[in-house]
Amino acid sequence: MEFETRYDEEGNPLSKEDSFRQSQEFIDLVEEVKKIQPMRIGVFKRYWDKFKYNKSRREYLIDLMDENDEQVKYYLADEFRGWRDEIEGVHTFLEELAKKQVDNDIRKQLKGNTLIRTIKGKHDNDTLQEIEYSSKTFNPYDPLNIKMQQK
């Protein structure tokens, strides 16, 4: 698709993307996206309410909905409100989850001097484990550490 060269107020040629953003086609697409936005958020809300307590499905949904928000943000720009802002209680729920995770990590850290965090990837093959040893108290010959390393 070829666009005519457009110029800004100072007479400088606009980029292809900026020219496209000023075209009638783009304006029509923005109107279409605005029309489907309430339905899109309704679908997200239904799935969020259904799966927010299932960790693996919740993480998958968050990735999908964030990815979709990036696409919609391109069209709506300043008028954009993401699913996290549109669905009531999402921010507080995710903040509470993050606090619980930090508290859980601290509690585990107090039990010993080794902290193992699992970092979920998009696929099972991408999942990593981060092992953190306390340099002040870690003794590799301690029976507790040997036992934890063998697990």
- Cα gyration radius (Å): 24 Å
pLDDT average, as an integer?
79
* CA-based shape: elongated
Percentage of residues in DSSP E strands: 5-15%
Describe the structure.
The protein is mostly helical and 151 residues long. It has two domains: 1-98, no CATH class; 112-151, no CATH class. The protein has six helices and two strands; from the N terminus they run αααααββα. Strands 1-2 form a two-stranded antiparallel ribbon. Helix 2 (24-51) packs antiparallel against helix 3. The chain is elongated and about 75 Å long. The termini are far apart. The mean pLDDT is 79.
Write the layout of secondary structure elements.
Layout: H1 16-21, H2 24-51, H3 55-76, H4 83-86, H5 90-111, E1 114-119, E2 128-133, H6 143-150
Antiparallel strand pairs: 1-2
Helix pairs in contact: 2-3
Outline of this structure?
The protein is mostly helical and 151 residues long. 60% of the residues lie in helices and 8% in strands.
Descriptors:
6 helices; 8% strand; 2 domains; mainly alpha
